[in-house]
Amino acid sequence: MMRSDQIERLITVQSHIIEQQQMHPEATGEFSWLLSGVTFACRIIEANVRRAGLIDVLGDTGETNVQGEMVQKLDKIAHKALLRCLGYRGNVGIIASEEDDEPYVLQQAGPKARYMVLFDPLDGSSNIDVNVSVGTIFSILRRREQDWDAKDPVKPLLQPGFEQLAAGYVVYGSSTVLVYTTGKGVHMFTLDPDIGAFMLSNENVKMPANGKMYSVNEAYAASFPEGYQKYLTWAKKENYSLRYIGSLVADFHRTLLRGGVFLYPPTAKSPEGKLRLLYEANPMAFIAEQASGKASDGVQAIMEKRPTSLHQRTPLIIGSADEVERVLELCNGKNGR
Ligand code: P6P
């Protein structure tokens, strides 16, 4: 008598990436090798984040980064982990980090190394000392043949978000969860601390089409453009809930799973918005769209924006399709439904 029980699939992120890779006939397995470098670095970061209270990694280094923000000790650890795990993959030619003004050109990989990786090594790091979830965000681009001999290492990186080959984030929260897409859906993995592997926990994740929840730092509301203020008034009348953690990865992860909308509008303090286009908004927008959500800067889709500088900022409206549309209607002068 044949046994009928279903054998539970145990799928690690590495085996999932290889399966995904097999859907790209032109791929040579290099891509899987590259992505496993990112996941390995995130396991190193996770180990340090988990021990933050026990080892001397809390607090700041006394340095400020290119953004003028105080560099936390864990920022530096995360930054170095990603550099070391990606720097010797052999197929990564250029790396750009939120922590450094200029990108790294990996000479040993040669001018034709096919991939470039941009990352925010530890987003929301100012929250670490109070044990609030933080995250790592990454975006992977192809180094185009026309850029093989580019003298300026920034120019090859200035690609619109729709050119991304892959994007993802890790949220170091009550559990450590990796979310990534290569353009074939959004897939979620939970780190099993006992075996040290990211195990598939949710495949082809879809964002709810709507959700009565908005996420914004209302302290700046007085300087938001009028359309955003109209939206806040409308949402309160409709009894929406406000949830704001102050860590993009955590706020986005909740929005991905529960629906709603996250907003970082232009403010008096940040007239272009605070979040960075290339390694925060673009990767999150890729994931949102792959999960049937939307991402806009209030005028155009985030992934259509033509970048002009490595660390440029952008306003961000991201979340459930219906909710983003509602914000855009009010931002562009139509009456919200
Ligand atoms: P504010 C964290 O510093 C961060 O870059 C994002 O993770 C987060 O969404 C945003 O800034 C919070 O900014 O101005 O509300 O503190």
Question: Care to give the gist of this entry?
Answer:
It is built from seven helices and 17 strands. The protein is of the alpha+beta class.
Spatial separation of the terminal alpha carbons: 60 Å
Summarize model confidence as the mean pLDDT. Answer: 90
- Poorly predicted regions are none
Q: From the alpha carbons, calculate the radius of gyration and give it in angstroms.
A: 20 Å
Bound molecules: 6-O-phosphono-alpha-D-fructofuranose
Number of strands: 17
Class by alpha and beta content:
alpha+beta
Strand content: 15-25%
Describe this structure in words.
By secondary structure, the chain is an alpha+beta fold. It folds into two domains: 4-202, 2-Layer Sandwich (Fructose-1,6-Bisphosphatase, Chain A, domain 1); 213-331, 3-Layer(aba) Sandwich (D-Maltodextrin-Binding Protein, domain 2). The protein is built from seven helices and 17 strands. The strands form four sheets. The chain has an eight-stranded mixed sheet with strand order 4-3-5-6-7-8-9-10, sandwiched between helices. The chain has a five-stranded mixed sheet with strand order 12-11-13-17-15, sandwiched between helices. A two-stranded antiparallel ribbon has the order 1-2. α1 (13-21) packs antiparallel against α2 (30-50), α2 runs antiparallel to α3 (73-87) and α4 packs across α7 (321-331). The chain is globular and about 55 Å long. The protein starts with 12 loop residues before the first helix and ends in a 6-residue tail after the last helix. The model has no long low-confidence stretch (mean pLDDT 90). The structure holds 6-O-phosphono-alpha-D-fructofuranose. 6-O-phosphono-alpha-D-fructofuranose binds next to α5.
